[in-house]
Recover the amino acids of this structure.
Protein backbone atom coordinates (compact mmCIF):
# COMPACT_ATOMS: atom_id res chain seq x y z
CA UNK A 1 0.00 0.00 0.00
CA UNK A 2 2.72 2.41 1.02
CA UNK A 3 4.82 1.38 -1.95
CA UNK A 4 1.86 1.91 -4.28
CA UNK A 5 1.26 5.33 -2.86
CA UNK A 6 4.90 6.24 -3.32
CA UNK A 7 4.78 5.11 -6.94
CA UNK A 8 1.59 7.06 -7.47
CA UNK A 9 3.20 10.14 -5.96
CA UNK A 10 6.11 9.89 -8.36
CA UNK A 11 3.73 9.43 -11.28
CA UNK A 12 1.76 12.47 -10.16
CA UNK A 13 4.90 14.54 -9.94
CA UNK A 14 5.96 13.45 -13.38
CA UNK A 15 2.67 13.90 -15.17
CA UNK A 16 0.44 16.25 -13.20
CA UNK A 17 1.60 19.47 -14.84
CA UNK A 18 1.49 18.31 -18.47
CA UNK A 19 -1.88 16.60 -17.92
CA UNK A 20 -3.40 19.70 -16.39
CA UNK A 21 -1.89 22.01 -18.97
CA UNK A 22 -3.01 19.86 -21.86
CA UNK A 23 -6.70 20.69 -21.63
CA UNK A 24 -9.20 22.35 -19.38
CA UNK A 25 -11.52 19.38 -19.80
CA UNK A 26 -13.80 18.67 -16.89
CA UNK A 27 -12.16 15.43 -15.95
CA UNK A 28 -8.83 17.18 -15.48
CA UNK A 29 -9.94 19.08 -12.37
CA UNK A 30 -8.31 17.08 -9.57
CA UNK A 31 -10.53 16.12 -6.62
CA UNK A 32 -10.97 19.08 -4.28
CA UNK A 33 -9.27 21.63 -6.53
CA UNK A 34 -12.42 23.48 -7.55
CA UNK A 35 -13.25 24.43 -3.96
CA UNK A 36 -10.07 26.49 -3.33
CA UNK A 37 -11.33 29.56 -5.19
CA UNK A 38 -14.23 29.86 -2.75
CA UNK A 39 -11.76 31.63 -0.42
CA UNK A 40 -8.61 32.27 -2.48
CA UNK A 41 -9.27 35.11 -4.92
CA UNK A 42 -7.33 35.91 -8.08
CA UNK A 43 -4.35 38.12 -7.14
CA UNK A 44 -5.89 41.22 -8.77
CA UNK A 45 -8.92 41.23 -6.43
CA UNK A 46 -6.78 41.99 -3.39
CA UNK A 47 -7.64 39.97 -0.30
CA UNK A 48 -6.29 39.22 3.15
CA UNK A 49 -6.49 35.55 2.13
CA UNK A 50 -3.32 34.85 0.10
CA UNK A 51 -3.77 34.14 -3.63
CA UNK A 52 -2.69 30.63 -4.70
CA UNK A 53 -2.95 30.61 -8.48
CA UNK A 54 0.35 32.34 -9.13
CA UNK A 55 2.43 30.12 -6.85
CA UNK A 56 5.04 27.52 -7.64
CA UNK A 57 3.32 24.14 -7.09
CA UNK A 58 6.20 23.11 -4.82
CA UNK A 59 5.37 25.99 -2.46
CA UNK A 60 1.71 24.96 -2.30
CA UNK A 61 2.65 21.36 -1.49
CA UNK A 62 5.09 22.47 1.18
CA UNK A 63 2.58 24.86 2.72
CA UNK A 64 -0.05 22.13 2.87
CA UNK A 65 2.45 19.75 4.51
CA UNK A 66 3.30 22.38 7.09
CA UNK A 67 -0.38 23.15 7.73
CA UNK A 68 -0.94 19.43 8.32
CA UNK A 69 1.99 19.06 10.69
CA UNK A 70 1.21 22.28 12.54
CA UNK A 71 4.58 23.81 11.65
CA UNK A 72 2.91 26.67 9.78
CA UNK A 73 0.41 28.70 11.83
CA UNK A 74 -3.10 28.98 10.42
CA UNK A 75 -6.65 29.81 11.39
CA UNK A 76 -8.44 27.42 9.04
CA UNK A 77 -6.02 25.84 6.54
CA UNK A 78 -4.68 23.49 9.23
CA UNK A 79 -8.17 21.97 9.44
CA UNK A 80 -8.62 21.78 5.67
CA UNK A 81 -5.12 20.51 4.82
CA UNK A 82 -5.69 17.44 6.97
CA UNK A 83 -8.32 16.31 4.48
CA UNK A 84 -5.81 15.95 1.63
CA UNK A 85 -2.97 13.53 0.99
CA UNK A 86 0.35 14.55 -0.54
CA UNK A 87 -0.74 12.98 -3.86
CA UNK A 88 -3.95 14.96 -3.91
CA UNK A 89 -2.16 18.16 -2.92
CA UNK A 90 0.38 17.64 -5.69
CA UNK A 91 -2.34 17.30 -8.30
CA UNK A 92 -4.23 20.35 -6.99
CA UNK A 93 -1.06 22.47 -6.89
CA UNK A 94 -0.23 21.56 -10.49
CA UNK A 95 -3.77 22.33 -11.63
CA UNK A 96 -3.76 25.69 -9.82
CA UNK A 97 -0.50 26.63 -11.51
CA UNK A 98 -2.02 25.82 -14.91
CA UNK A 99 -5.02 28.13 -14.37
CA UNK A 100 -5.00 31.58 -15.89
CA UNK B 1 -33.14 10.38 -26.43
CA UNK B 2 -31.71 9.52 -29.84
CA UNK B 3 -31.33 13.17 -30.85
CA UNK B 4 -29.59 13.90 -27.58
CA UNK B 5 -27.19 11.01 -27.94
CA UNK B 6 -26.37 12.40 -31.38
CA UNK B 7 -25.51 15.78 -30.01
CA UNK B 8 -23.17 14.18 -27.58
CA UNK B 9 -21.53 12.29 -30.37
CA UNK B 10 -20.95 15.41 -32.43
CA UNK B 11 -19.44 17.08 -29.43
CA UNK B 12 -17.39 14.00 -28.79
CA UNK B 13 -16.02 14.30 -32.29
CA UNK B 14 -14.95 17.86 -31.61
CA UNK B 15 -13.10 16.85 -28.47
CA UNK B 16 -11.78 13.52 -29.70
CA UNK B 17 -8.39 15.03 -30.42
CA UNK B 18 -7.99 15.87 -26.76
CA UNK B 19 -9.64 12.99 -25.00
CA UNK B 20 -10.71 9.53 -25.99
CA UNK B 21 -14.36 9.13 -24.98
CA UNK B 22 -15.06 6.38 -22.49
CA UNK B 23 -18.73 6.01 -23.40
CA UNK B 24 -19.05 6.39 -27.16
CA UNK B 25 -22.61 6.84 -28.40
CA UNK B 26 -23.94 6.37 -31.92
CA UNK B 27 -25.80 9.10 -33.83
CA UNK B 28 -25.53 11.71 -36.55
CA UNK B 29 -27.67 14.75 -35.71
CA UNK B 30 -26.16 18.20 -35.20
CA UNK B 31 -26.48 20.72 -32.39
CA UNK B 32 -24.69 22.05 -29.35
CA UNK B 33 -25.58 20.50 -26.00
CA UNK B 34 -28.21 22.44 -24.09
CA UNK B 35 -27.81 22.96 -20.36
CA UNK B 36 -30.47 24.80 -18.37
CA UNK B 37 -29.75 25.94 -14.82
CA UNK B 38 -32.65 27.09 -12.64
CA UNK B 39 -31.78 29.37 -9.73
CA UNK B 40 -29.20 32.17 -9.85
CA UNK B 41 -27.70 31.95 -6.38
CA UNK B 42 -24.32 30.69 -5.21
CA UNK B 43 -24.94 27.20 -6.60
CA UNK B 44 -26.72 27.97 -9.85
CA UNK B 45 -24.79 31.02 -11.08
CA UNK B 46 -21.52 29.21 -10.31
CA UNK B 47 -22.65 26.07 -12.11
CA UNK B 48 -23.89 27.91 -15.22
CA UNK B 49 -20.58 29.79 -15.65
CA UNK B 50 -18.53 26.67 -15.03
CA UNK B 51 -20.48 24.56 -17.51
CA UNK B 52 -19.86 27.27 -20.13
CA UNK B 53 -16.13 27.24 -19.32
CA UNK B 54 -15.93 23.47 -19.64
CA UNK B 55 -18.12 23.35 -22.77
CA UNK B 56 -17.73 26.61 -24.69
CA UNK B 57 -19.96 25.35 -27.52
CA UNK B 58 -22.85 24.48 -25.20
CA UNK B 59 -25.96 26.63 -24.96
CA UNK B 60 -26.16 27.43 -21.25
CA UNK B 61 -29.28 29.17 -19.95
CA UNK B 62 -29.63 30.45 -16.41
CA UNK B 63 -33.25 30.92 -15.32
CA UNK B 64 -33.79 33.18 -12.33
CA UNK B 65 -36.94 35.00 -11.21
CA UNK B 66 -35.20 38.10 -9.87
CA UNK B 67 -32.88 40.46 -11.81
CA UNK B 68 -30.94 41.08 -8.59
CA UNK B 69 -29.61 38.44 -6.25
CA UNK B 70 -29.63 39.24 -2.54
CA UNK B 71 -27.05 37.18 -0.66
CA UNK B 72 -27.90 35.62 2.70
CA UNK B 73 -24.35 35.38 4.11
CA UNK B 74 -23.66 38.60 6.05
CA UNK B 75 -27.35 39.58 5.90
CA UNK B 76 -27.46 39.18 9.69
CA UNK B 77 -25.14 42.19 9.69
CA UNK B 78 -27.79 44.15 7.80
CA UNK B 79 -30.41 43.23 10.41
CA UNK B 80 -28.06 44.45 13.16
CA UNK B 81 -27.35 47.74 11.34
CA UNK B 82 -23.71 46.90 10.61
CA UNK B 83 -24.06 47.01 6.80
CA UNK B 84 -26.57 47.92 4.12
CA UNK B 85 -28.77 45.62 2.07
CA UNK B 86 -27.21 47.04 -1.11
CA UNK B 87 -23.91 45.42 -0.09
CA UNK B 88 -25.69 42.06 -0.34
CA UNK B 89 -26.98 42.61 -3.87
CA UNK B 90 -25.51 41.41 -7.13
CA UNK B 91 -26.58 41.38 -10.79
CA UNK B 92 -25.95 38.98 -13.65
CA UNK B 93 -23.97 41.14 -16.12
CA UNK B 94 -20.73 39.21 -15.59
CA UNK B 95 -22.58 35.91 -15.96
CA UNK B 96 -23.95 37.11 -19.31
CA UNK B 97 -20.45 38.22 -20.39
CA UNK B 98 -19.29 34.62 -19.96
CA UNK B 99 -21.75 33.62 -22.68
CA UNK B 100 -24.49 32.34 -20.39
CA UNK B 101 -27.98 33.32 -21.49
CA UNK B 102 -29.71 34.74 -18.42
CA UNK B 103 -33.51 34.60 -18.50
CA UNK B 104 -35.20 36.65 -15.79
CA UNK B 105 -38.39 34.67 -15.36
CA UNK B 106 -39.76 32.18 -12.87
CA UNK B 107 -39.53 28.51 -13.81
CA UNK B 108 -42.91 26.93 -13.11
CA UNK B 109 -42.70 23.34 -14.35
CA UNK B 110 -40.29 20.65 -15.48
CA UNK B 111 -41.03 17.76 -17.81
CA UNK B 112 -38.35 15.17 -16.95
CA UNK B 113 -39.43 12.78 -19.73
CA UNK B 114 -39.71 15.44 -22.44
CA UNK B 115 -36.67 17.25 -20.98
CA UNK B 116 -37.99 20.77 -20.87
CA UNK B 117 -38.48 23.56 -18.36
CA UNK B 118 -41.60 25.74 -18.57
CA UNK B 119 -41.36 29.40 -17.61
CA UNK B 120 -44.08 31.62 -16.11
CA UNK B 121 -44.91 33.06 -19.54
CA UNK B 122 -45.38 29.59 -21.04
CA UNK B 123 -42.01 29.45 -22.81
CA UNK B 124 -40.52 25.96 -22.90
CA UNK B 125 -36.77 25.53 -22.68
CA UNK B 126 -35.52 22.12 -23.88
CA UNK B 127 -32.44 20.69 -22.19
CA UNK B 128 -30.02 17.81 -22.44
CA UNK B 129 -29.06 18.28 -18.80
CA UNK B 130 -30.91 20.39 -16.23
CA UNK B 131 -29.37 21.73 -13.03
CA UNK B 132 -31.69 22.88 -10.26
CA UNK B 133 -30.29 25.21 -7.61
CA UNK B 134 -33.58 26.38 -6.14
CA UNK B 135 -32.44 27.11 -2.58
CA UNK B 136 -35.13 26.85 0.06
CA UNK B 137 -38.78 27.63 0.41
CA UNK B 138 -40.31 28.52 3.76
CA UNK B 139 -42.85 25.92 4.89
CA UNK B 140 -45.92 27.95 5.69
CA UNK B 141 -47.76 24.70 6.47
CA UNK B 142 -45.51 23.42 9.23
CA UNK B 143 -45.76 25.79 12.21
CA UNK B 144 -49.37 26.52 13.22
CA UNK B 145 -50.11 30.23 12.87
CA UNK B 146 -47.08 30.93 10.70
CA UNK B 147 -48.61 31.79 7.35
CA UNK B 148 -47.27 33.99 4.58
CA UNK B 149 -49.28 36.85 6.10
CA UNK B 150 -47.76 36.21 9.53
CA UNK B 151 -44.31 36.87 8.08
CA UNK B 152 -45.15 40.59 7.95
CA UNK B 153 -45.67 40.77 11.73
CA UNK B 154 -43.06 38.14 12.57
CA UNK B 155 -40.45 38.23 9.78
CA UNK B 156 -38.39 35.15 9.01
CA UNK B 157 -35.67 37.06 7.13
CA UNK B 158 -34.36 33.64 6.06
CA UNK B 159 -34.44 34.56 2.38
CA UNK B 160 -32.49 37.79 2.19
CA UNK B 161 -34.23 40.85 0.77
CA UNK B 162 -37.31 42.76 1.88
CA UNK B 163 -37.70 40.45 4.91
CA UNK B 164 -34.18 41.38 6.02
CA UNK B 165 -34.97 45.09 5.77
CA UNK B 166 -38.29 44.58 7.56
CA UNK B 167 -36.71 42.88 10.58
CA UNK B 168 -34.11 45.65 10.80
CA UNK B 169 -36.78 48.35 10.72
CA UNK B 170 -38.73 46.59 13.45
CA UNK B 171 -35.62 46.40 15.65
CA UNK B 172 -34.84 50.06 15.02
CA UNK B 173 -38.42 51.08 15.85
CA UNK B 174 -38.52 49.06 19.07
CA UNK B 175 -38.35 51.01 22.33
CA UNK B 176 -35.41 50.39 24.60
CA UNK B 177 -36.53 47.77 27.09
CA UNK B 178 -38.51 45.67 24.59
CA UNK B 179 -37.93 41.94 24.38
CA UNK B 180 -36.83 40.40 21.08
CA UNK B 181 -37.82 36.75 20.64
CA UNK B 182 -36.33 34.47 17.98
CA UNK B 183 -37.21 30.87 17.21
CA UNK B 184 -34.85 28.38 15.57
CA UNK B 185 -36.09 25.26 13.76
CA UNK B 186 -35.19 21.58 13.97
CA UNK B 187 -32.64 20.24 11.45
CA UNK B 188 -32.19 20.41 8.53
CA UNK B 189 -32.37 24.05 7.48
CA UNK B 190 -30.39 26.62 5.50
CA UNK B 191 -27.20 27.79 7.24
CA UNK B 192 -26.93 25.75 10.47
CA UNK B 193 -24.99 28.42 12.44
CA UNK B 194 -27.10 31.25 10.97
CA UNK B 195 -29.68 31.55 13.77
CA UNK B 196 -26.88 31.83 16.35
CA UNK B 197 -24.90 34.39 14.37
CA UNK B 198 -28.14 36.34 14.08
CA UNK B 199 -28.79 36.03 17.82
CA UNK B 200 -25.25 37.26 18.49
CA UNK B 201 -25.51 40.28 16.22
CA UNK B 202 -28.98 41.23 17.46
CA UNK B 203 -27.62 40.97 21.01
CA UNK B 204 -24.75 43.21 19.92
CA UNK B 205 -27.22 45.73 18.50
CA UNK B 206 -29.27 45.69 21.70
CA UNK B 207 -26.20 45.99 23.91
CA UNK B 208 -24.95 49.05 22.05
CA UNK B 209 -28.27 50.72 21.10
CA UNK B 210 -31.02 49.41 23.40
CA UNK B 211 -29.22 48.41 26.60
CA UNK B 212 -32.40 47.76 28.60
CA UNK B 213 -33.67 45.24 26.01
CA UNK B 214 -33.04 41.53 25.95
CA UNK B 215 -33.13 38.66 23.46
CA UNK B 216 -34.75 35.29 24.00
CA UNK B 217 -33.89 32.43 21.60
CA UNK B 218 -36.37 29.54 21.56
CA UNK B 219 -34.80 26.47 19.98
CA UNK B 220 -36.30 23.22 18.68
CA UNK B 221 -32.86 21.61 19.23
CA UNK B 222 -30.56 20.81 22.12
CA UNK B 223 -27.40 21.11 20.02
CA UNK B 224 -26.33 23.42 17.20
CA UNK B 225 -23.41 24.32 14.96
CA UNK B 226 -20.35 25.91 16.66
CA UNK B 227 -22.32 25.69 19.91
CA UNK B 228 -19.44 25.80 22.40
CA UNK B 229 -17.88 28.77 20.64
CA UNK B 230 -21.13 30.70 20.47
CA UNK B 231 -22.03 29.97 24.07
CA UNK B 232 -18.58 30.94 25.35
CA UNK B 233 -18.81 34.22 23.47
CA UNK B 234 -22.35 34.89 24.69
CA UNK B 235 -21.23 34.37 28.26
CA UNK B 236 -18.43 36.86 27.74
CA UNK B 237 -20.25 39.45 25.63
CA UNK B 238 -24.01 39.14 25.87
CA UNK B 239 -25.65 38.81 29.28
CA UNK B 240 -28.75 40.14 27.48
CA UNK B 241 -29.11 36.88 25.46
CA UNK B 242 -30.96 33.86 26.81
CA UNK B 243 -31.04 30.57 24.85
CA UNK B 244 -33.73 28.04 25.69
CA UNK B 245 -33.06 24.57 24.32
CA UNK B 246 -35.53 21.90 23.29
CA UNK B 247 -35.20 20.09 26.61
CA UNK B 248 -35.72 23.37 28.47
CA UNK B 249 -39.00 23.90 26.60
CA UNK B 250 -37.66 25.90 23.66
CA UNK B 251 -39.68 24.19 20.93
CA UNK B 252 -42.32 26.53 19.52
CA UNK B 253 -45.62 24.75 18.78
CA UNK B 254 -47.60 27.71 17.52
CA UNK B 255 -47.31 31.43 16.89
CA UNK B 256 -49.91 34.17 17.21
CA UNK B 257 -48.96 36.96 14.82
CA UNK B 258 -51.60 39.42 16.09
CA UNK B 259 -49.79 39.65 19.43
CA UNK B 260 -46.34 38.45 18.28
CA UNK B 261 -46.58 35.54 20.69
CA UNK B 262 -44.65 32.26 20.64
CA UNK B 263 -46.39 29.29 22.28
CA UNK B 264 -44.33 26.43 23.73
CA UNK B 265 -45.21 23.43 25.91
CA UNK B 266 -44.14 25.46 28.91
CA UNK B 267 -45.51 28.90 28.28
CA UNK B 268 -46.22 31.90 26.11
CA UNK B 269 -43.58 34.44 25.12
CA UNK B 270 -44.79 37.77 23.80
CA UNK B 271 -42.27 39.76 21.78
CA UNK B 272 -41.81 43.42 20.99
CA UNK B 273 -39.95 42.19 17.90
CA UNK B 274 -40.37 38.61 16.73
CA UNK B 275 -38.18 36.63 14.33
CA UNK B 276 -39.45 33.20 13.36
CA UNK B 277 -36.91 31.02 11.58
CA UNK B 278 -39.41 28.47 10.32
CA UNK B 279 -39.10 24.94 8.95
CA UNK B 280 -37.98 24.80 5.32
CA UNK B 281 -37.83 22.58 2.26
CA UNK B 282 -36.23 22.63 -1.18
CA UNK B 283 -37.40 25.46 -3.45
CA UNK B 284 -40.69 24.51 -5.09
CA UNK B 285 -39.42 23.86 -8.61
CA UNK B 286 -37.61 20.84 -7.13
CA UNK B 287 -40.91 19.29 -6.13
CA UNK B 288 -42.42 20.18 -9.52
CA UNK B 289 -39.51 18.35 -11.17
CA UNK B 290 -40.05 15.27 -9.03
CA UNK B 291 -36.61 15.40 -7.42
CA UNK B 292 -37.71 15.82 -3.78
CA UNK B 293 -38.36 12.87 -1.49
CA UNK B 294 -40.81 12.73 1.41
CA UNK B 295 -38.51 14.92 3.50
CA UNK B 296 -38.99 17.79 1.04
CA UNK B 297 -35.28 17.76 0.12
CA UNK B 298 -33.44 16.24 -2.86
CA UNK B 299 -31.44 12.99 -2.77
CA UNK B 300 -28.45 13.18 -5.14
CA UNK B 301 -25.50 11.15 -6.38
CA UNK B 302 -22.61 12.70 -4.43
CA UNK B 303 -20.13 12.53 -7.33
CA UNK B 304 -22.29 14.10 -10.07
CA UNK B 305 -25.15 15.72 -8.11
CA UNK B 306 -27.56 13.98 -10.47
CA UNK B 307 -30.93 13.38 -8.85
CA UNK B 308 -31.54 9.90 -7.45
CA UNK B 309 -35.10 10.25 -8.75
CA UNK B 310 -34.87 11.79 -12.22
CA UNK B 311 -32.26 11.12 -14.89
CA UNK B 312 -30.56 14.13 -16.51
CA UNK B 313 -31.58 16.47 -13.67
CA UNK B 314 -28.91 17.56 -11.22
CA UNK B 315 -29.49 19.42 -7.95
CA UNK B 316 -26.98 21.56 -6.03
CA UNK B 317 -26.97 23.78 -2.96
CA UNK B 318 -29.36 24.08 -0.03
CA UNK B 319 -32.02 21.93 -1.71
CA UNK B 320 -29.88 18.78 -1.63
CA UNK B 321 -29.52 16.01 0.90
CA UNK B 322 -25.75 16.22 0.94
CA UNK B 323 -24.71 13.96 3.81
CA UNK B 324 -22.24 15.75 6.05
CA UNK B 325 -22.16 18.94 3.96
CA UNK B 326 -24.12 21.76 5.58
CA UNK B 327 -26.46 24.01 3.62
CA UNK B 328 -24.11 26.98 3.13
CA UNK B 329 -23.15 29.36 0.33
CA UNK B 330 -19.64 27.88 0.25
CA UNK B 331 -21.13 24.41 -0.11
CA UNK B 332 -23.43 25.53 -2.93
CA UNK B 333 -20.52 27.16 -4.77
CA UNK B 334 -18.29 24.08 -4.33
CA UNK B 335 -21.09 21.75 -5.40
CA UNK B 336 -21.88 23.98 -8.39
CA UNK B 337 -18.32 23.55 -9.65
CA UNK B 338 -18.21 19.78 -9.14
CA UNK B 339 -21.64 19.41 -10.72
CA UNK B 340 -20.59 21.53 -13.73
CA UNK B 341 -17.54 19.33 -14.33
CA UNK B 342 -19.72 16.23 -14.09
CA UNK B 343 -22.37 17.65 -16.44
CA UNK B 344 -19.67 18.56 -18.96
CA UNK B 345 -18.07 15.13 -18.73
CA UNK B 346 -21.41 13.33 -19.12
CA UNK B 347 -22.36 15.46 -22.14
CA UNK B 348 -19.05 14.53 -23.74
CA UNK B 349 -19.62 10.86 -23.04
CA UNK B 350 -16.79 10.82 -20.53
CA UNK B 351 -16.68 9.39 -17.05
CA UNK B 352 -17.05 12.13 -14.40
CA UNK B 353 -14.03 12.64 -12.17
CA UNK B 354 -13.70 11.70 -8.54
CA UNK B 355 -15.44 14.18 -6.23
CA UNK B 356 -13.96 15.83 -3.20
CA UNK B 357 -15.50 18.92 -1.68
CA UNK B 358 -14.78 21.50 0.97
CA UNK B 359 -17.01 23.66 3.10
CA UNK B 360 -15.84 26.72 4.98
CA UNK B 361 -18.26 28.77 6.98
CA UNK B 362 -17.58 31.86 9.05
CA UNK B 363 -19.93 33.39 11.62
CA UNK B 364 -19.62 36.76 13.27
CA UNK B 365 -20.31 36.83 16.99
CA UNK B 366 -19.49 40.54 17.03
CA UNK B 367 -18.14 42.84 14.30
CA UNK B 368 -14.54 42.01 15.31
CA UNK B 369 -15.14 38.48 16.57
CA UNK B 370 -15.31 35.69 13.99
CA UNK B 371 -15.51 31.91 14.34
CA UNK B 372 -15.45 29.23 11.68
CA UNK B 373 -16.21 25.65 10.81
CA UNK B 374 -14.59 23.74 7.95
CA UNK B 375 -15.01 20.28 6.51
CA UNK B 376 -13.63 18.12 3.71
CA UNK B 377 -16.02 15.61 2.13
CA UNK B 378 -15.93 12.68 -0.25
CA UNK B 379 -18.52 10.14 -1.35
CA UNK B 380 -18.54 6.99 0.80
CA UNK B 381 -21.20 4.42 -0.04
CA UNK B 382 -23.12 7.03 -1.98
CA UNK B 383 -23.12 9.65 0.78
CA UNK B 384 -20.96 12.78 1.11
CA UNK B 385 -18.96 11.96 4.21
CA UNK B 386 -16.51 13.94 6.35
CA UNK B 387 -12.89 13.00 5.71
CA UNK B 388 -11.77 11.75 9.09
CA UNK B 389 -9.24 13.89 10.94
CA UNK B 390 -9.99 16.98 8.85
CA UNK B 391 -12.24 19.94 9.47
CA UNK B 392 -13.78 21.12 12.70
CA UNK B 393 -14.39 24.44 14.41
CA UNK B 394 -12.11 27.24 15.59
CA UNK B 395 -10.20 26.48 18.79
CA UNK B 396 -12.06 27.11 22.03
CA UNK B 397 -9.16 28.82 23.76
CA UNK B 398 -7.98 31.23 21.07
CA UNK B 399 -6.98 34.82 21.93
CA UNK B 400 -9.07 37.77 20.72
CA UNK B 401 -6.49 38.48 18.00
CA UNK B 402 -7.44 35.10 16.47
CA UNK B 403 -11.17 35.96 16.63
CA UNK B 404 -10.47 39.29 15.04
CA UNK B 405 -8.39 37.66 12.27
CA UNK B 406 -11.29 35.30 11.56
CA UNK B 407 -13.68 38.26 11.37
CA UNK B 408 -11.35 39.76 8.73
CA UNK B 409 -11.20 36.46 6.86
CA UNK B 410 -14.99 36.26 6.96
CA UNK B 411 -15.21 39.61 5.14
CA UNK B 412 -12.51 38.53 2.71
CA UNK B 413 -14.41 35.32 2.03
CA UNK B 414 -17.62 37.20 1.21
CA UNK B 415 -15.78 39.51 -1.18
CA UNK B 416 -14.01 36.59 -2.87
CA UNK B 417 -16.97 34.27 -3.28
CA UNK B 418 -19.35 36.95 -4.51
CA UNK B 419 -16.66 38.03 -6.96
CA UNK B 420 -16.27 34.48 -8.19
CA UNK B 421 -20.01 33.91 -8.57
CA UNK B 422 -21.22 37.32 -9.79
CA UNK B 423 -18.10 39.40 -10.65
Amino acid sequence: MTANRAVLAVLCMAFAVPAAAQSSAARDVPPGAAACSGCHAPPQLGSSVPPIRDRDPKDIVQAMQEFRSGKRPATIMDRIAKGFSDDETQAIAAWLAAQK
Amino acid sequence: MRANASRRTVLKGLTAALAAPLFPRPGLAQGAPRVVVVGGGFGGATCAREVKRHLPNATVTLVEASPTFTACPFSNGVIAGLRELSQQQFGYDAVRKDGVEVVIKAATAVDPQGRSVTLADGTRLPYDRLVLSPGIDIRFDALPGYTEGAAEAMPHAWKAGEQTALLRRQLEAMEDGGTVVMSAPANPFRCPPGPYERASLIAHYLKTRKPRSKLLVLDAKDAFSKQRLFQAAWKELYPNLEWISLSQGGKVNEVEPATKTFVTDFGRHQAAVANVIPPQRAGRIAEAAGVTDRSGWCPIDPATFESRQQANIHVVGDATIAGGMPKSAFTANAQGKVCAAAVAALLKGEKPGEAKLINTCYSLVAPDYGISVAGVYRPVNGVLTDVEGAGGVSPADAPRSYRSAEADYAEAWFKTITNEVFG
